[in-house]
Structures are given as C-alpha cells and as structure tokens.
Amino acid sequence: MKDFRSGPDFLCVGMPCSGTRWLYDNLQAHSDIEMPLIKELHFLDRGFRSRTLNNRLKKIIHRETNGRGVATSHRVFLERYAQAPSIPGLPEAEAAYLWAWKHGTAEETTFKPQAEHFDWYESLFEPYRPKMTGDVTPGYWWVGPDTIRTFNERYPHMRYIVMLRNPVSRTISSLNKQVHKGVFSLAEAHELIESPPSLPQVLANGELMTTFGLRSSQAIMKWAEIVGREAIQILTLDEVSKAPDRVRARIYDFLGQSAPASMIDETMTSNRKENRFPNLLTDADTSNLRHSLRAEIESCKVLVGDAVMNW
C-alpha cells in the first residue's frame, strides 16, 4: 500500500459550474495548503491535459519576460507534468477521452490508471510538501466505479469535497457559458431547454452531457458508495454566496486545518468567476428547467438538507 502522503491529501470531485474556482482559491489562500499550479489535473478522467500544459508554459514565459518570478515548487510541478506524454498510456488516454467527449456514447470515462500512471500523478504533489495539497477537478463526477475503487484502495484515507449548486442555476450557468462561447446559439439553447436531449444524445456530445446529463445527486452517491459518505464534504454555492466565511471555515475544519481570519486575503478568495457569462435566458427557460429537474432538486435536498431548502 502506498503511503497516503505520497499522493494528494484531498480531491474535489465535482461539480462543474458550481464554484470550484472559489474552492481552489480558498484552499490556496491557507498558509498550510499549497495547490498545484494547474487547477484541474484531470488525472482520473483523461490522464492529463496537453492543452492545459501548453497554455501554462506560455503563461510562465510571459511572467518571466515581465520580470515576475515563479515559485520553485510550481516550476518543479510543471516540469513533472510535462513528462506526461512520455508515460505509456497517458497520451492515448487523452486522445480517447477527447474522441468520446465529441462523438462517443460511453456513460463514463474509459481511462483506467495503472501503477506507472499513479507514480507520475503522485510526483506532481511532492514539490508542495510538507504542506497539504490536493486536486480540484470537477470533471471527476464522470469517473466510473472501477476507477473510484482503484483510487480509494490506493488512498484509503483520502478526503473528498463536492461543490453543489441548484440544478436549475447550474444548468443555466453552463448553457449560458456555451452560448457565449459559440457552442450553441441562443435559439438552440431555448430549444434544448424546451425539449431536453435524450440520454444517448447527451452522451454523444460532451458539452450537452455537462449541461443536461449531469445529475449531481447520482454522482455524489456513486462516490459515497465506495469511499464512504463520511469522507465527503458537500458544500453549496448558495452557502458560499450567503456566508463565505462560514463555508471557508468548514473546508479548513474538514481538512484538519485552522485558519485565523488574518491569514485570508478576502480580495483573493471572492467568487471571481461569478457573473462571468451574463444570463441570456428567460424566466420561461428557468420555469421549464425547474419542472424538468424537479426530481433532481429533491434528490439534492436529501443529500444536504437545509442548505438547499429554497431551491
């Protein structure tokens, strides 16, 4: 059995468009926690991200060109992350993921990490020791039971965090982002809400799957059945909006950390992606989604109780 400290201390396993950037920033803000330079490592669902690596390398060059230094821990991390293409299986895993995301019909990611893949993954966290560190990848909601089981067997003491959001608000946020990015037209967005795609159609298009195929309650229970409900801390974006200090304290307490207020720079831990993509949808769209997602809303209420009673 590998030593727990050889891997991450905690994992954020979801959900997209639910405040995971806020979570990452607040984890990084703690003096005894240092997060990897790349927020979403995507190890369990796709192996690695070549596009993310290239973008990060460009940013490092830009920072150095402008006379701003880069922490040694981040530099070592990036050097190790860049080794991914030379590790058997990782480039193929990414290619398979991208194909499935655009054209496939799989209900979960097909990547099955092997021992050498875990060795590479663990090396990414070593530069940040002895501080606590972890992996915030909302795409892990898509990971299948076999991969979750393998991960849990390797790291039996792992702590898991979930950022949850009102299913209606989360769907609207995701769809607005895609409309602003040109993935769907506004007319297509209205049509999708009025006639939600069937499951096979959703799974054949990654963007649709993230928007309409994601059922947070099912994803959480899938992880809980293997790692144990007590190992999972569920937070809601609604709570973050109302009482960020209280949620921040819950996160640190869950991870066994204390955090005097003086350590936290509030300007760096606000939800800086909030309202990034203005809402283009109508009240009728919201009403239609509330009707189609009624069962999911009730399932989420069972998981977290009072925090979502106004959904």
Quick summary:
The chain is mainly alpha-helical and 311 residues long. It is built from 16 helices and four strands.
Give a written overview of the molecule.
This protein has 311 residues and is mainly alpha-helical. The chain has one domain (4-308): 3-Layer(aba) Sandwich (Rossmann fold), CATH 3.40.50. It is 51% helix and 5% strand. It contains 16 helices and 4 strands. The protein has helices at residues 20-29, 43-46, 50-65, 72-81, 90-103, 115-123, 145-154, 167-180, 186-194, 199-203, 206-213, 216-227, 237-242, 244-254, 283-292, 294-304, and strands spanning 10-12, 134-136, 159-164, 232-236. A 4-stranded parallel sheet has the order 2-1-3-4, with helices on both faces. α8 (167-180) runs antiparallel to α11. The termini are far apart.
What portion of the residues fall into strands of 2 or more residues?
A: 5-15%
Q: Gyration radius, to the nearest Å? A: 19 Å
Report the principal-axis shape. Answer: globular
Number of strands: 4
Structural class: mainly alpha
CATH homologous superfamily identity: P-loop containing nucleotide triphosphate hydrolases
CATH topology: Rossmann fold
Main sheet attributes: strand count, strand direction, barrel closure:
4 strands, parallel
Oligomer: single chain
Domains (count): 1
Output the number of helix runs.
16
State the CATH class.
Alpha Beta
One letter per element, helices H and strands E, the order comes to EHHHHHHEHEHHHHHEHHHH
Uncertain residue ranges: none
- CATH architecture tag: 3-Layer(aba) Sandwich
Terminal CA distance reads 43 Å
